[in-house]
């Protein structure tokens, strides 16, 4: 083509010169900088790169570390195949690493696991298929799996993923079973008051077979290899096999996440969970009372979940395991929050739902070691978990800024309701359940102490929301009183928390977590007393409930007053205060606390009707006494001396 110049003469256009570009890392680029790839698969492969080791291995390297990548993956698959092996077949399933619906798998070696003790039976269809293993996926990978394949999974405006746990939106304690055998028969707490409902070995194996068969029938399963306990000397290796990305991400957040190097040297797990919660148990199976069953076999070191998709069953199942394993090592397992001051002073917070345990243990002026589960060893305290599992009902940025800000990419939101267009979560909406939850890694909390360990506790704080309004806002406890109130685990339910509650109702949960105990409560109490005495810790009873009257007539103790009390405990001011003893419960009450009205420190002074106060006090004392009778049949030591000391520390009237 030609074009006319100003003089009307046509001139030829100068052709563009070829532009040569340098080759970056051997990949030719076009003039506009786009990568040249022969296929879409090749282009997509350029988008992702392999993770590189970023932390040094500790200790002496083992032979496993020096293996090739293919050999390491083969051994990992062999271990997973062994975990999924049936109790009646000669081999484990054929497993392949990678997503069957995604890009090409990294390793496609199938592995058979020979179970020499089991009889070999005829081959079945399930034995001919491959099971794809999605191993220790990252949050981003699990998001993709959940959003693509799991109905009810949505990305919210904060970046967190919202999921549904199905028909079960809470734990099913009546469906929890523990295998009774020659070992556990004498070791565990059975009978009246115990959360441990027995089942035999045969029934466990029936349920295990049902769960394993279901998992092996799936096209893919998720496998998490992770740790419990930040104390490196007492770390427990756990494997979780599940069928939902939601469950895998939940446990990724809640357990301690291994480094790439630690995974390479993971080996055989100490405990395995088979979560086949989408599949029901057989109601005709012995010991079953519904289509749900959560079964723990401490001898086999396994847990089976059938008929419930509520993720909290896995978390609390592992906590029950730690309640069994740790005392065997003379380590006390605790259902508590834990924080540490800048000077290294550690405080433990015990309390049932609604007492303020999470709120009071989360303090901007102190480091958070953990919010729920801990161990107390000869070296100090350590968090069992790698994450937090916070309640979300009525959550607001003003009241709980740390939890609010932790709900971001990587966080699992359970059973919340959100706007279908903006995807903004309405934390006040109880349409699905009141038990809405957020599960996130502990490092999402700005003042979390990593690693989550600390020195021996200086203060042990027992929280009670006394809706009867007769317990003082704070009391200093003797060692025997600490044990008594620790075993009792008291709080009160009020209208609005449980259906059909019209007036305050006392509730007791041993060691502030009876549902998860494996041993008798007095064993944990004796260990707590021994450690407190050895390390000079002080016990406190803090009432976060009512004063000036019971629920309905009195007033809730202001959170600002409770924080002043907790601050005085941390600073040591309350240890040096002047005290006077109350009647009936015999509690030591400080005469004054800076920033707290003196009239509420002694409960009877805040009640206008003194006779009503006295009657209510005696009523609560009677409830304590009746509850404690359950534990008097058990002897802690020879001669029952310690048990009598604890009993004497209770109310006298």
Automatic annotation (TrEMBL):
Q: Which UniProt keywords apply?
A: ATP-binding, Decarboxylase, Gluconeogenesis, Lyase, Nucleotide-binding
The catalytic activity, as recorded, is: oxaloacetate + ATP = phosphoenolpyruvate + ADP + CO2
EC number(s) per entry: 4.1.1.49
* Spans traversing the lipid bilayer: none
Cross-referenced InterPro entries: PEP_carboxykinase_ATP, PEP_carboxykinase_C, PEP_carboxykinase_N, PEPCK_ATP_CS
- Statement: the UniProt record of this protein carries the keyword ATP-binding: yes
Q: Which organism is it from?
A: Hibiscus sabdariffa (roselle)
What the entry lists under SUPFAM superfamilies is as follows: PEP carboxykinase N-terminal domain, PEP carboxykinase-like
- Its pathway? Carbohydrate biosynthesis; gluconeogenesis
Q: Which PROSITE patterns match?
A: PEPCK_ATP
What protein is this chain from? phosphoenolpyruvate carboxykinase (ATP)
| Annotated family | Belongs to the phosphoenolpyruvate carboxykinase (ATP) family.
């Amino acid at each position: 083509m030609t074009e006319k110049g100003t003089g009307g003469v046509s001139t030829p256009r100068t052709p563009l010169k070829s532009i040569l570009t340098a080759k970056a890392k051997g990949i030719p680029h076009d003039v506009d900088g786009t990568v040249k790839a022969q296929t879409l698969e090749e282009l997509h492969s350029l988008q992702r790169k392999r993770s590189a080791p970023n932390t040094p291995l500790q200790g002496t390297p083992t032979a496993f570390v020096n293996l090739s990548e293919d050999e390491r993956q083969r051994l990992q698959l062999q271990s997973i195949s062994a975990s999924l092996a049936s109790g009646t077949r000669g081999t484990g399933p054929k497993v392949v690493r990678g997503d069957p619906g995604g890009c090409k798998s990294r390793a496609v070696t199938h592995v058979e696991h020979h179970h020499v003790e089991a009889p070999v039976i005829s081959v079945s269809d399930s034995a001919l298929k491959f099971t794809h293993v999605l191993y220790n996926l990252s949050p981003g990978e699990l998001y993709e799996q959940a959003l693509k394949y799991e109905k009810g999974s949505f990305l919210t405006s904060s970046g967190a993923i919202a999921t549904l746990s199905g028909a079960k939106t809470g734990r099913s304690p009546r469906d929890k079973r523990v295998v009774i055998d020659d070992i556990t028969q004498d070791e565990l707490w059975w009978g009246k008051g115990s959360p441990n409902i027995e089942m035999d070995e045969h029934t466990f194996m029936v349920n295990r077979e049902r769960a394993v068969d279901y998992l092996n029938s799936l096209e893919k399963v998720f496998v998490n290899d992770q740790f419990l306990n930040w104390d490196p000397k007492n770390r427990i290796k756990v494997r979780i096999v599940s069928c939902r990305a939601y469950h895998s991400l939940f446990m990724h957040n809640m357990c301690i996440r291994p480094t790439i190097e630690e995974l390479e040297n993971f080996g055989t797990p100490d405990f395995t969970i088979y979560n086949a919660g989408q599949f029901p148990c057989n109601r005709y199976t012995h010991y079953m009372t519904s289509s749900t069953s959560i079964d723990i076999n401490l001898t086999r070191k396994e847990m089976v979940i059938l008929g419930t998709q509520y993720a909290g069953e896995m978390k609390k199942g592992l906590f029950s395991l730690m309640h069994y394993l740790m005392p065997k090592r003379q380590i006390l397992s605790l259902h508590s929050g834990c924080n540490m001051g800048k000077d290294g002073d550690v405080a433990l917070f015990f309390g049932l739902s609604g007492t303020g345990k999470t709120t009071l243990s989360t303090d901007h002026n102190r480091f958070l070691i953990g919010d729920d589960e801990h161990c107390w060893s000869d070296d100090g305290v350590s968090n069992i978990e790698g994450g937090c599992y916070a309640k979300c009902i009525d959550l607001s940025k003003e009241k709980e800024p740390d939890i609010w800000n932790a709900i971001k990419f990587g966080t699992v939101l359970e059973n919340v309701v959100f706007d279908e267009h903006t995807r903004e979560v309405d934390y006040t909406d109880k349409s699905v359940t009141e038990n809405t939850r957020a599960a996130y890694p502990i490092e999402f909390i700005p003042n979390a102490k990593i690693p989550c360990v600390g020195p021996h506790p200086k203060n042990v704080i027992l929280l009670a929301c006394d809706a009867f309004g007769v317990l003082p806002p704070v009391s200093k406890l003797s060692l025997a009183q600490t044990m008594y109130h620790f075993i009792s685990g008291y709080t009160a339910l009020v209208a609005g928390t449980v259906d059909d509650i019209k007036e305050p109702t006392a509730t007791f949960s041993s060691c502030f977590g009876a549902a998860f105990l494996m041993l008798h409560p007095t064993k944990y109490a004796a260990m707590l007393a021994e450690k407190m005495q050895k390390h000079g810790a002080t016990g406190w009873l803090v009432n976060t409930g009512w004063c000036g009257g019971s629920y309905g007539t009195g007033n809730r103790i202001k959170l600002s007053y409770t924080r002043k009390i907790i601050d005085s405990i941390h600073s040591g001011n309350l240890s040096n205060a002047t005290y006077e003893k109350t009647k009936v419960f015999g509690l030591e009450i400080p005469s004054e606390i800076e920033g707290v009205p003196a009239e509420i420190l002694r409960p009877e002074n805040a009640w206008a009707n003194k006779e009503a106060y006295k009657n209510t006090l005696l009523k609560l004392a009677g409830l304590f006494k009746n509850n404690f009778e359950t534990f008097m049949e058990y002897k802690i030591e020879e001669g029952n001396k310690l048990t009598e000391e604890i009993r004497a520390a209770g109310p006298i009237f």
